[in-house]
Amino acid sequence: MNRSTPARKIKSKFELIIQRPFGDPLGMSFSLAVSIAVFIAIAIRQWLPEWIKIWQIMSAGAVAVLITGNLAPTEAFNAIDWNVIAYLFGVFAISHALFASGISEKVSNKICTPGRSIPLILLPFILFVTAVSAVLTNDAAAAIGTPIAIAIAARLQIKASLPLIALCVTVTVGSMFSPVGNPQNLLIVADGHFDNPVGTFLIWLGPPAIVSLAFTLLWFWYRLKTEKPGEAPEAVTPEDVTVHPAPALISTALLSVLVILDSVAGGASWFPDLPLGLISLIAAIPLFVLSSNRVQILKEVDWHTLIFFVAMFIVTGAVLKSGVLQEWLSPWRHQLGDPLLLSSIAFWGSQLFSNVPLVEIYLNLLEKHDVAVLMLLSGISTLAGNLFIISAASNVIIIQQAEKHGIKPFQFWQFTATVLPVTIVSLIVCYGWVALMRVLLNGGS
Questions:
Q1: Do 70 and 314 contact (CB within 8 A), yes or no?
Q2: DSSP state of 178
Q3: What own/partner pairs with CB < 8 Å and gap ≥ 24 does 223-231 have?
Q4: For the chain: N or C, fewer Cβ within 10 A?
């Protein structure tokens, strides 16, 4: 019996919208205008009143498309990927438990051992974050890695912005290694029906990810070495370690084992079909059953980021319902497998529409779904997250986690200017490697 992958749970949400006919021109222009307005508002947030947060800007966009009728309440509910929301809820609960129990502080202290040079601090940090991204997704790595990035800033006596941006880059690139590294990878796995998805991602995207991470190490080593001391944050530590570490460790181990088993199992019948959201909720059970601080853990879940994601799905759903992206892609439908066209659309389309819905629509319009095309789509749409703050949800998670800890993160254009060299190098390496692999394994077809 064929077993559906967790990505089917994500895919079905977008199919409800994609299969609808195009909306009317007025609705189309308004939905797109709201999406652009949200992007601009986040870009200029540094000049807005300090109390305005990213989640509030996205929520305003969601309210706008709802009250104008561009998306009905039932359509908005269907547009929300509750599987992703459930996964993030579990991950946020586990990451807070790791922090409140002092485990995150111990990892930070291990990485930031006094006397270590910048490379010896950056290397274990990048390796740790990459491993978490590949096994537990980029969003989990973003939540878990934020206190560690702040600790690095405190250790080096610099602003928190550079280590936090390094975290953003690492979780994005690190998620390329595995089929569960990010949501768009899951969609591609569901569409590609790979016999060995783990091996496929390691062969096609592992080498460019390694080269990109090596360049990331060198680039941020240079940036941190030339960064002037000043305004260093205090290392983020729990005020009082009241949460016992055992439940947090059990939940982390359970989440890792279930995600790995689900990825390795593929289409096998010996492992139940569990969506990632359910896996995350199952993994969080020890926190609320074994811990005496379950109410505290529940209160400290990053609810603002969850609201941001709900609002983002609503705004994106309105744009998808309008049919604007489908209409733009239709003239090139027969050329969507061309590497240059695919890379251009995947990269720039992800900036405006977000990479997950962009990938889903692209998969539905592709005529030929060969491995090279799917791997290039995965790599480029993932690396698109290293251009703007809004390009990857993990960037937003890191910003809001930092603000939750009372740390002022990076500004919109500061992020873009800092990550641009890594973005350019990683895109070239990814494109070149997939092109080479296509020639070697598929005879150039």
A1: no
A2: S
A3: 223/162, 223/418, 224/118, 224/122, 224/156, 224/158, 224/162, 224/163, 225/118, 227/156, 227/158, 227/159, 227/162, 228/158, 229/156, 229/157, 229/158, 230/157, 230/158, 230/159, 231/159
A4: N
pLDDT of 73 above 60: yes
- Tell me the C-alpha to C-alpha distance, in Å, between residue 72 and each of 17, 75, 208, 313, 318: 12, 5, 42, 13, 9
- Rounded CA separation 341/343 (Å): 5
Q: What was the pLDDT predicted at 1?
A: 33
From 281, 278, 262, select the one nearest 270 (Cα to Cα). Answer: 262
Say if CB 5 and CB 181 are below 8 A apart: no
How many CB atoms sit inside 10 A of residue 2's CB?
Answer: 6
Domain ranges of the chain: 7-322+395-409
Question: What CA–CA distances, in Å, run from 99 to 46, 75, 148, 171, 356?
Answer: 28, 37, 10, 19, 29
Residue 152: count of CB within 10 angstroms of its CB = 26
CA dihedral over 272, 276, 277, 283, signed as positive or negative:
positive
Q: The pTM is what?
A: 0.80
